[in-house]
Amino acid sequence: MGDILVEKSKQFSTSQTEKNGAQGANFVHRQVKRLADGQKLRLDTNRDYKLICISGAETAFNPKGLSKKDAKAYGAALSILEDAAQIVTHLSNRLRDSADGMTTNGVEILLQNKDSLNPEFLEKISPYLLAILKNGATSDGHRLTVYIPPCERSQFEAEIGYLPAKVRKSFDWSGWLDHIYDPVPKAGEGFYLFKRQADWARFEVSLDDKYAKLKRQLEKIFTKALTEPLEYGELKRYDDLSSKLIGIQKAKLEEALKKNKYARGMCTRVSVGVSASGKLSLSVVHYTEEFRDELSLLARQIRKAKRALPQGEQTAELRAVLEAQAKWCLEKTKNPDWGKSLSIWVTAKNAQNRIDCNFTCEEKVSTIGQKSDFQIHVSQFAEVPSVLQNLWEAVQERASKGKGKNGLEKTNILLLETRIVGGHNVKLTVSGEKLPDPANEPWYKSMTFTNTTAAAASRASAEAMAFVTGISPEELGKMPLAVLVAVILHEFGHTLGDHAKFLEERGGYVEETNAQASAIYLTLRFLPEILPQIAIFDSCWTPPKRAQVGIFEQHSRSDLVLFEANLRAGAIEIVEKDGRHILQVRDLDLLVKNAFEQAIHMRLLEKGIPSKYHGQFLEPLNPADPEQDVRITQKAIKWMKSPPKEVLKSLKVEKASEARKLLKAAVSKEAEKLFSDAHMRKIGKVLEPVLDDMKRAEIPATLYIVLPGYKPMEALVV
Fold first, then answer.
1. Nearest by Cα to 220 from 189, 193, 188, 183
2. Which among 133, 255, 339, 344 is least surrounded, fewest beta carbons within 10 Å?
3. pLDDT band for position 29 (50/70/90)?
4. pLDDT digits (tens, 9 = 90+) for 464-520
5. pTM of the complete model
6. Could you tell me which of 134, 183, 104 has the C-alpha nearest to residue 35?
7. DSSP E strands: which ranges in 91-172?
8. Do 135 and 65 contact (CB within 8 A), yes or no?
């Protein structure tokens, strides 16, 4: 597909005369108002966002200490990796898009021919096109809803008519419009792709009467929104209907998937056929076959970047990493776990390489089963701020010890600056990430990205954070540093947990909850003076932020579960102040205690131990005893290896293996209930007074993008 995209780019590079000729004298060309950093924009007729562009000096390569020759070589390699990032994003678009990448292809063709469009129309649809490019599909992955176009279909059709004839004929514009004007989100996204539109139609017919009724209600709201703004209540109803429709779709798809474990595999793509009677059939293809062309092109680009780098010891490790990634792209395998990281990637840590490149497809992102999406992240090694040096050394020392001799995991903790991103797991930004190692190698890789983290705290969240928490300007000024610490300790918290594969997609929810809770109590252990700010950020600001942008994304579920636990414990509270609802810490000591207990709770679930047995493992938090994390984990591992006789008796089994199976099944049910859509909606309702006040005060949510690294957006964003 990568080669095809290159050819398309050439095909649509028509002359300026040809582009403008379709419009003739109908429009007078004028300067279009472009989207810009900090600009507020509106989506879905009634949803306000603030655009944050992390670009320019923030993403520029720093050549300090390099010769001109070496600086030029690094620049050439980064330019090649920018092109690789676009290939990764196109590949990701196919996985995220229920139209197999057609959605973003149409947007890109429009942007390549934007001079043929009415400038007023282009300005009107720019926020909508940006949302599609950022998410890779018509659907908002956080809210599980379809973005509502800002005009009726007839106006879009008229504008497409102004495109050059060659462009109009070379793309299925009618099918594209059918798709973007379909208000029903698809549970399978592009991971589970319906073979034909007729299969999807038969699938919907096979669902119950409740589905048909909900669909009619959704279509009514969507149609209304094309001509007039929705009321805030109508928009919430639109979200609610969409998630319920997806829930019904999921239930039927999951029934078919229960019989095909390979279809649920991490790196397999599924085509769904539906018979006239509504029976589902699944065709499964491994990513290495499905995306052979894209991966082959990526291998060439990665090796080209490797060759462009300066030779010598300073880049030896980086070149080895790139070569390993290129070889990985060309593998032929049917292993569903193929996308998990290679050990050579996670040991790349030497800062003399200057830059690091992570190309992975390991995140569990699908709304069904355990699927993965591709992403690439190119970064430059950053210096540790002097104020964090003691924290950094303490975390490094702890991470290098791992979990003890029975738990091999040790971690390289890295501080990096984002240069280029591609793919949609990171939604074109990322604050931190931990790369797991599936081969039981002793090293992991935990990364915190300073420039994106700082932008999130200072430019993006400051206004909303102050509104929701009521903090003073002095406290707000401390937040960028606090957020950096929070991300560092969140990523370190991942090293204390262990993603549980038996929990399937819920394993990610459990592990993120562990990491987020860990960041709170680890602050008391490593940097207590900054604990008040981290408590405000993670426990008072983050939950409403998640609920504002959508309660169904993996991190949203974990933050909402922790919010509910803290609220019930009395550690935080919602109060009315200055005519609005705000979240504030009620008892900081209790908050830390609860965070520790929640982190341990999640780690024990990951080991397969249901909550009813957790009491025997708990012990009071001792900030001066960092070994207690390991001690509790090792005790749990030992218990699970040989469950006590009374447990075997209560489960009515004789063998430990039988007991482990039943215990894990109980944990799966517990996690399913805790992180269910219904529970997320219930918690979200508790936060509605806060969100309603934000809406009335016109406090926007944020849209992040990183440039360079995604060139189609350059047509929209300064």
1. 183
2. 255
3. very low
4. 999 999 998 888 888 888 999 999 999 888 888 888 889 987 888 999 999 999 999
5. 0.87
6. 134
7. 139-140, 145-146
8. no
Burial 123-153 (b: 16+ CB within 10 A, else e): eebbbbbbbbbbbbbbbbbbbbbbbbbbbee
Which value, to the nearest 10 degrees, does the dihedral of the CA atoms of residues 125, 126, 127, 132 take?
90
d(CA 511, CA 515): 6
Pairing of strands 572-577, 580-585: antiparallel
Q: Which residue in 525, 508, 539, 492 sits closest to 628, CA to CA? A: 525
Whether 588 and 607 have beta carbons less than 8 Å apart is answered as no
User: H or E element: which one contains 636?
Assistant: helix 627-641
**Both tokens assigned to 141:** 């992955």
Burial of 653 (0-12, 13-18, 19+ CB in 10 A): middle
Q: What whole-number distance in Å separates Cα of residue 553 and Cα of residue 533?
A: 25
DSSP per residue, 516-533:
HHHHHHHHHHH-GGGHHH
The backbone torsions φ and ψ at residue 465, rounded to the nearest 5 degrees and listed phi first, read -60, -45
pLDDT at 437 over 70: no
Asked whether 602 and 514 are in contact (CB, 8 A), the reply is yes
Q: What percent of the chain has pLDDT over 90?
A: 65
Per-residue pLDDT tens digits for 287-334: 999 999 999 999 999 999 999 999 999 999 999 999 999 999 999 999
Bridge partner list, 508: none
Contact 370, 297 (CB under 8 A): no
Condensed to tens digits (0 to 9), the pLDDT of residues 641-652 reads 999 999 999 999
pLDDT for 18: 35
Q: List alpha helices for 642-718, DSSP H.
A: 645-651, 656-674, 677-686, 688-696
* Pairwise CA distance, residues 557 & 572, whole Å: 18
Contact 382, 344 (CB under 8 A): no
For the record, the structure tokens of 338 come out as: 């193929």
CA 311/CA 316 separation, integer angstroms:
8
